[in-house]
Amino acid sequence: MNKVVLTGNDLDLEQLVAVCRDHVKVEIDEKAIADVNKSREYVEEIVEEERVVYGINTGFGSLSRVSISKEDSVQLQENIIRTHASGFGNPLPEDEVRGVMLIRINSLLKGVSGIRLSTIELLLEMLNRNVVPFIPEKGSLGASGDLAPLAHMVLPMLGLGKAYYEGELLPGKEAMEKAGLKPIALAAKEGLALINGTTVLTATGALATYDALKLSKIADIAGAMACESARGIIDAFWEELHTIRPHAGSLKTAENLRNILEGSTYITHTAELRVQDAYTFRCMPQIHGASKDTLEYVKEKVEIELNSATDNPIITHDGKVISGGNFHGELMAQPFDFLAIAVSELGNVSERRIERMVNTTLSGMPSFLVKHPGLNSGFMITQYAAAALASENKTLSHPASVDSITSCENQEDFVSMGNWASRKAREVIKNTARILTTELMIAAQALDFRMEMEDNKYQLGKGTKVAHDVIRKQVALIEDDKSIEIYEELEKAQELINTGKLLEEVEKVVKF
User: Fold this and answer.
1) What pathway does the annotation place this protein in (predicted)?
2) Catalytic (active-site) positions
3) 132 in the same domain as 273
4) Exposed end of the chain (fewer CB within 10 Å): N or C?
């Protein structure tokens, strides 16, 4: 992807990731410019005629009852940026801040926010030159938009606040100057147009959604390897079983597992070694499938939000000014809560498969998958660590969207907590990635033991063989405790997920 051209209407998740993580350049489609300019003309008419319109010549929130003079309308916009930038905590990661900027630009290009084209262009240039505003991650209620974090985004545009440039955190004015950009003064309506929206929670949640979709495929690979190491029963993945309960995620997971395990002679059939497998193997299509269905739903909601106007008030294309609630994050807070639940379940079932592999009474292999257990602990504590992450995920999966707290003198009396919903989902995905890393590493070890126990007389599936080989190139078979530092080996294995290398190699032979 060489560039992304924004129209306000067709930004998708793949393009977002390309801009946020690969620094693909962004342009504005010429067709969007006319609507932006027309919207701005309406604002200037309102200011000139001194008509009372919320956010243009009134205070904000419960202060909408206070009229602002034409002379003070510009100062009003700077004031809200200075006072609304009241966030707290660690800075949002660079990719998320770039996502915030991209989504805000795309939203403003819909031409209903009354902002000047030149102001949008400055934000675009900051994105293309990688001036990354310092945005503390906490402080948004997810209603009236992400006011506090978005105000931090705007500060460097005014020569205020802080921003990263070429990896260095600098005063906002200095960062802009080093990038060859000049700060501006905001005009009427522009401060509100820049900060009133769901942009931060959407950026965080959108990138988390992308990562979760990748993890759902990793879960199928890890689960297939674990099942094969146990000489599991493939009959539970037969297509006919799933067509009679035709949920898309279940059908897709069963297909993935069949394809990954194709050609395996370790896999068995009903009553060949046992009548049934445990749920963590037998029910993978139903468990993973439920998560896949949820992820597809969340992706659909994300891509709607990427191309939505979440400002207030909205200036219609025929000049009407409508004060509504498009800034309210509830429409995304619930999906991001669902996202956390879906990915948490992938981690939960993965941890249970880990236990089955390291437990000698369940696996029939040496305790903790190491020779001479007792002298060696092998993978004992990796299961503890995975269990700790799975348990943490359960707490993080409590929905944020069921909470609310009154703000702004009871004018804003029901809020979404969508920003917290998206950040919780992000943490669940990080934890689950580590759990799946642990399962992949243990499954590779279990397959090595299985092959040795069976005198190498069977063969691995076409997908599991590739996955095993990729892991073995990065992480050696663990012979004993004295030869390894388990944390370092886990980090090596996780790199295969983080870089996409494992999925890339398996996808060369298996269609997902």
Assistant:
1) Amino-acid degradation; L-histidine degradation into L-glutamate; N-formimidoyl-L-glutamate from L-histidine: step 1/3
2) 54
3) no
4) N
